[in-house]
Amino acid sequence: MVQLTTRERDLGAIILIALAVLGIAMAAAGRNDLLGIHGAMVLLYSLVLLFVLLSGAFGAPPSPGRLTRYYDDPIKIGVGLTLFWAIFGMFIGVWAAAQLAWPSLNFDTSWASFGRIRPAHTSGVIFGFGGNALITTSFHVVQRTSRARLADQLSPWVVLFGYNLFCLIAISGYFLGVTQSKEYAEAEWYADIWLVIVWVTYFILYVRTLARRKEPHIYVANWYYLAFIIVVAILHIVNNLAVPLSFAHAKSYTIWAGVQDSMVQWWYGHNAVAFFLTAGFLAMLYYYLPKRAERPIFSYRLSILSFWGITFFYMWAGSHHLHYTALPHWVQNLGMTFSVMLLVPSWASAGNALLTLNGAWHKVRDDATLRFIMMAAFFYGLSTFEGSFLAIRPVNSLSHYTDWTVGHVHAGALGWVAMITFGSLYTLVPAIWKRERMFSATLVEVHFWLALIGTLIYVFAMWNSGIIQGLMWRTYSPDDTLVYSFVDTLVAMYPYYIARTFGGLLFLIGAIVAAYNVWMTVRTPAAALSLDEDLPVIEHPGATPTPAE
Amino acid sequence: MALTHETLVEGSKMWGLFYLIGFSICVLIYTFLPSNRKRFERAEKEIFDEDDAPWK
Lengths: 549, 56
Hints:
A: Cytochrome C Oxidase, Chain A; two-stranded antiparallel sheet
């Protein structure tokens, strides 16, 4: 925050004091409710930030020269937060997986029961890890592709720290037992309202930065980021419309009833996959892949066509989560049809990425970072094919409620989302900290293999487990009775549960290796040769001019 | 006109289809409009400019 001006610091302090007062009000009003604990957390969070903000207030004023550079400070903090949530979320995931194999790992406590740590895992990896990665990379990409500095210096911090406050309130709430029981939208009303405020700030910042662009055309990666920001706002608001018990209670009731509630929830749920876990990560793909491969995207026009295909088709696909339910048949058909059609723009994106690498396969062989990105595109193609396939109603009758779904989700989450994120981070970190490369290329290589082997073990275990489970559930004897009891299926799944825990553990170790590598890259002093050679030499008193200069 | 279930069903089943077709045509025109060719080709290459500072 060293570059903040006095006015920005004042404004930041006002926001934080208002937030602290809000925290006190929540703590007082909710003293007999779990809301009170969250009030205390809001108070503490804003006071810590206020301390950080004020402790730098009496330093030298920021140099006007800062405006001739990109604003990368929030990106640096964002990288740290991304890696923190990655390790946290994946650790909880491994724990939850282990509980399924060894149920006593909940230690007979309520806060560590599977029903509570499971949403802590999903929110930790999706919102904590994924969300921070999206915000961080979007700040990087929008500045570089627009050739403009972020529109102001305060709102990026509001977005970053505000978003992390949401994650903290949401996830701590699950451990406490605060939930509105909507998958991937478990956070209660007050956290939801806060996220709306943060998200609108994010949207305004992004659009203002785009409006300041010096490059006439808005690069396609920004389209994907903007789709992610806008659609997530719409989804979040509509699905979380609820009436709280009172302002002093954490509990609320949704305004949607019955099958409408299911439909809204899965319209939200599937589009969270589409616009949170796909659109924003495709933005990373369209920027970091060409940058890393040093080759322009195979077809820019194809990227535009697939953009509109994905944004349009995904909107209608959510009802495939509700096959064989009270939802009208034609709505199920609609969801199924659009899911199958989605394969076209999805494979167009995956194909576009892989064809970009044609002529650069030697780089894929030598550079583990590029291999991360390549493997992500491959898994993106694989899981979108699987998704379209699973959405077909008769296939869904076998797969639904089984571990096949879990396997499918993790092919996407580990293979696609996490791999593209790590590929992007390994490209972004040296660029932001002006290092020539990561601290250790060997550790990137180690991480790549841990991630790939972990994903394969996980996904194959769940495919086997899920299909066995689905087949056992529908096996009838000649006199039309079920052959297997539910417990029989659990016994059959046991070895796969151990395997998936091990696969997840490998992936977690990979994330820890990544965090260490990033930390060491940041700690190691930059080489004398500075990457921003376009700046006048006088800006770098310590720099040695190279012959080219 | 009352907003009934039937109205919504008709809207989705019929006008939804025309909306999809019309929308696709617009996207195709934008993508393949000859005057946009230059802009897209430039966009493909522009990200490789190593100039790591905002433009004046």
